[in-house]
Design goal:
Layout: E1 7-11, H1 17-29, E2 34-39, E3 42-48, H2 57-60, H3 63-68, E4 73-81, E5 84-93, H4 101-117
Antiparallel strand pairs: 1-3, 2-3, 2-5, 4-5
Length: 122
Amino acid sequence: MELDDRFGSCAAGEMMPEESRIVRAAVVLLRGDVAVLHTGSRAVLAAADGVEAADSARQLSDPLEAMALGYRSQLSVPLWREGRRVGALAVLDRAERRFDAADIALLQGLAGRMDVARPSIH
């Protein structure tokens, strides 16, 4: 099955194709309800099949707001550009769950693709 066939919606601003693929891959590979990629003034959201993505990417990029909206688990890793933190990539789930070392490594790998995929994500 193609990756594009295994996720639901994706929204927020004008996305670069690689940003869209990365945030979608995070949802599918980490089996989360939603994933958010946030850099500066931009935020990208992808939701798993069957998950209503009514909450905005900007709301879900704030862990306290996400918790208030009912998300109980979050794994977030920083996005880096030339040694500076420029954003974050996060996977959220409404169910309580523990993320393991493999989940962390996978999300870090996806986040690392941003620096390679786009010369500037500011």
